[in-house]
C-alpha cells in the first residue's frame, strides 16, 4: 500500500513540475519568440509539402503498379497536380479579385438584406416568452461576432500569405524530392526511431493511415467536385459571385453536418438581393448538391472510413469551433481520429508492459 502511495506522489510531483515548466516557458516568450518565428517560417512549407506528398504518393504507387516506371509516374502526377493548380491560379485569381472588389463595393446592400432577415426573425419571436426571445437574440449576436471575427481572420490570413510567397514557392521543389526519395525518407525514419519502439511506431502509423488517409483524400476530392459543380451551376444561372460562392461551398463542405449550412447562408443572402426566383434557384442548387454528396459521392468515394459515431463527430466539431473557429471545425475530425488511435495504442502498450 505504501509503495502505491509513493508512486502516486511521484506522478503528482512530475505533473506539477511539468505544469511549472510550461508556465515558465510561456513567461519567457520574448526570449524564444524569434527562434519560434524562424522555425515556423521553415516548418509551414515543409508541413504543406509533406501533406501534398502524402496525398499524391498512393496515386503514384497505383500508377507504378500498372507497369509504368516510378520516375515517370512521379513526373506525370507531379506535373498534373501542380500544372492544374498553377493554371487554376492563373485563370481564377484575376476573376476572384474582381469579384471580391465588387463584393466589397456592394457589401452594404447584402448587409441590409441580412439585417432585414434578423429584424423579421426578431419580430416573429417578440411574442415568445422573454427567456426564449433573449436567448435567440443572444444567439444571433454571438453569430454576428463569430462571422466578424472569421472575416477578420480570413483577411489577415490573405495579407500574411504575401509575406510567405518566397517560402511557399519552394513547396513544389520539396514535394518533388519527397516523392522521389519517399523510400529513403521512410528508411531514415526507421533508423531514427529507437529500436524497441520501431514495431509499435510502424503499426501506429499504419493505423492512422488506415483510419484517416482514405477519409482525407476522399473528402478533399468530394469537396473539389462539389465546389466545381456549385461554381458552374451558379454561373449558369447568372448568380452573382459564382467563383467566391463555389469556393466557399467547396471549402466548407469539408466540415461534416455544419459545412453545408455555413456555405449556403452567403449564397442565399446574395440571391435575396437579386430576386425571389434566384433564391429558389440557389435553394434547389444547394439541396441538389447535398443530395449528390450525401447519396452518391460520399458513400462512393469517402464511404464509412472513419468508423465514428455521429455524436462523437458533432461533439468534436463543437469543441473545434469553440477553440479555433472555422479552422477548428475543419481540423476537429482528423484530430479526434488521431487521438483515438493514440489512446488505443497507449492502452495496448500499458497492457503489454
Automatic annotation (TrEMBL):
UniProt superkingdom: Bacteria
Membrane protein topology class: Multi-pass membrane protein
Chain segments annotated as transmembrane: 12-32, 38-60, 72-90, 161-179, 220-237, 243-272, 279-301, 313-343
Annotated compartments: Membrane
Keywords recorded for this protein, A-Z: Membrane, Transmembrane, Transmembrane helix
Membrane is among the record's keywords: yes
Pfam families to which the protein is assigned, alphabetical: AI-2E_transport (PF01594)
Keyword Ubl conjugation in annotation: no
Record-stated family: Belongs to the autoinducer-2 exporter (AI-2E) (TC 2.A.86) family.
Protein name as annotated: AI-2E family transporter
Annotated source species: Metabacillus endolithicus
Amino acid at each position: 500500500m505504501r509503495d502505491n502511495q509513493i508512486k502516486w506522489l511521484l506522478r503528482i510531483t512530475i505533473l506539477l513540475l511539468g505544469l511549472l515548466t510550461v508556465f515558465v516557458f510561456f513567461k519567457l516568450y520574448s526570449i524564444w519568440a524569434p527562434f519560434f518565428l524562424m522555425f515556423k517560417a521553415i516548418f509551414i512549407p515543409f508541413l504543406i509539402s509533406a501533406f501534398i506528398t502524402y496525398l499524391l504518393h498512393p496515386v503514384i504507387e497505383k500508377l507504378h503498379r500498372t507497369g509504368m516506371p516510378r520516375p515517370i509516374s512521379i513526373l506525370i502526377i507531379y506535373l498534373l497536380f501542380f500544372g492544374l493548380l498553377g493554371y487554376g491560379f492563373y485563370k481564377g485569381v484575376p476573376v476572384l479579385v474582381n469579384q471580391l472588389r465588387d463584393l466589397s463595393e456592394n457589401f452594404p446592400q447584402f448587409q441590409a438584406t441580412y439585417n432585414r432577415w434578423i429584424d423579421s426573425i426578431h419580430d416573429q419571436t417578440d411574442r415568445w416568452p422573454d427567456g426564449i426571445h433573449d436567448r435567440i437574440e443572444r444567439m444571433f449576436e454571438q453569430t454576428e461576432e463569430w462571422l466578424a471575427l472569421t472575416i477578420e481572420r480570413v483577411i489577415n490570413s490573405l495579407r500574411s500569405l504575401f509575406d510567405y510567397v518566397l517560402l511557399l514557392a519552394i513547396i513544389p521543389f520539396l514535394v518533388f524530392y519527397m516523392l522521389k526519395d519517399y523510400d529513403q525518407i521512410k528508411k531514415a525514419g526507421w533508423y531514427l526511431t529507437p529500436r524497441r519502439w520501431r514495431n509499435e511506431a510502424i503499426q501506429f502509423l499504419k493505423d492512422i493511415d488506415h483510419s484517416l488517409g482514405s477519409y482525407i483524400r476522399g473528402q478533399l476530392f468530394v469537396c473539389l467536385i462539389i465546389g466545381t459543380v456549385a461554381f458552374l451551376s451558379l454561373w449558369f444561372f447568372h448568380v452573382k459571385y459564382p467563383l467566391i460562392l463555389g469556393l466557399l461551398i467547396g471549402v466548407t463542405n469539408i466540415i461534416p453536418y455544419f459545412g453545408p449550412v455555413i456555405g449556403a447562408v452567403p449564397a442565399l443572402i446574395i440571391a435575396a438581393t437579386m430576386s425571389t426566383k434566384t433564391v429558389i434557384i440557389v435553394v434547389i442548387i444547394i439541396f441538389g448538391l447535398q443530395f449528390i454528396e450525401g447519396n452518391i459521392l460520399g458513400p462512393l468515394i469517402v464511404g464509412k472510413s472513419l468508423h465514428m459515431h455521429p455524436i462523437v463527430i458533432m461533439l468534436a466539431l463543437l469543441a473545434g469551433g469553440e477553440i479555433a473557429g472555422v479552422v477548428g471545425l475543419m481540423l476537429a475530425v482528423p484530430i479526434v481520429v488521431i487521438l483515438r488511435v493514440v489512446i488505443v495504442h497507449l492502452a495496448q502498450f500499458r497492457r503489454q508492459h
